Amino acid sequence: MNDIAKQAHNGRVAAIIQVINEQMTDLGVRTRAVFTHDVLQLLCEAKNPESLEKTTIVTKIREILESISPRNIRRVRINSRILKEQQLLWLETISQDPEEQLLWSEDIILKKPNLFKRWFNRSSPNQPIVNNLSSNSKPEKRQFSLSLILGIGVSLLLGLIGLWLYSELQFQLFNALQSHRKYKVEVSPSPQQPLSSAEQFTQGVKLAIEAAAEGQVADTRQEWLEIAQKWQQAADLMAEVSPDFERYKIAQDRAILYRKNQEQAQQKADELNN
Fold it and tell me: Membrane-spanning residues where (predicted)?
């Protein structure tokens, strides 16, 4: 496993996107991602709708992510739209008006890693036991050893198959419940309530803290773009605080500061692009 694949397996969004983009090149599709509220939000873009055929894209993305098996990521939302210029706030844009912005979207749940396969790979070095039996052993002893090994192997195999079937049934039940919930939400959408000034202030502070922390360890262009996006979101939230809010002056000062931080993060991303 190379370094990028290892980072992707550990759940690093920038590495996950790099792996996906490498494997989606032949389809003419570019992807971006943000991990928020325990959901990996993916945006797939192409120059024409034909390249974004839903079944093909969803199947391909699922195969790639399940092969990566990113740690702590199970829920994924795949969004698709015609290719647009770089937008730092693409998630906010499509969330505000999904019907106008997107061709389609799909929620998926990633399967857990195959326990039987992992066990089999760990156990395979022990298989030469049969071949290492002494050629001088009596036929009866050799037959007994083979029977014992086969008996243990069959017992373990049956037990693991039972565990796998149980895990599959749980997954299918969970997936069915998620699909039912999604259908109800799509049929009866409820309008989002606007945030209060206090909520805007709190959310802006939270995003700023996240952006500052991520800026301490960022080392790729994609990561700096995501950090710049968070700073811009934080600045926008502070700028929208009502003048009647008791911390309005603080919010306006922070909006200015956050925009400066956003410009610095964007500048770092541009430097890495050169």
Answer: 144-166
Q: Which domain holds residue 138?
A: 115-173
154 and 206 in a single domain? The answer is no
Q: Are strands 30-36 and 75-82 parallel, antiparallel or unpaired?
A: unpaired
Within 8 A by CB and 6+ apart from 222, the residues are 13, 14, 17, 18
Residue 185 belongs to some domain of the structure: no
| Single-letter code of the amino acid located at 44 | C
Q: Which residues pair with 81 in a beta bridge?
A: 45
* CB neighbour list of residue 147: distance below 8 Å, 6 or more residues apart: none
188 domain-assigned: no
Is-contact 231 261, C-beta < 8 A? Answer: yes
Q: Are residues 83 and 148 in the same domain?
A: no
**Tokens linked to 200:** 């805007």
Query: For the segment 134-164, what is each residue's pLDDT rounded down to a tens digit?
Result: 444 455 556 667 777 877 878 888 888 877 7
Claim to verify: residue 98 and residue 141 sit in the same structural domain:
no
CA distances from 134 to 85, 123, 125, 128, 221 (A): 70, 22, 18, 12, 60
- Average of per-residue pLDDT values in the chain: 81
47 in Cβ contact with 28 (< 8 Å): yes
Q: How far apart are the first and last CA of the chain?
A: 28
**How far is the C-alpha of 176 from the C-alpha of 113, rounded, in Å?**
20
Half-sphere exposure of 100 toward its Cβ, with a 13 Å CA cutoff? 4
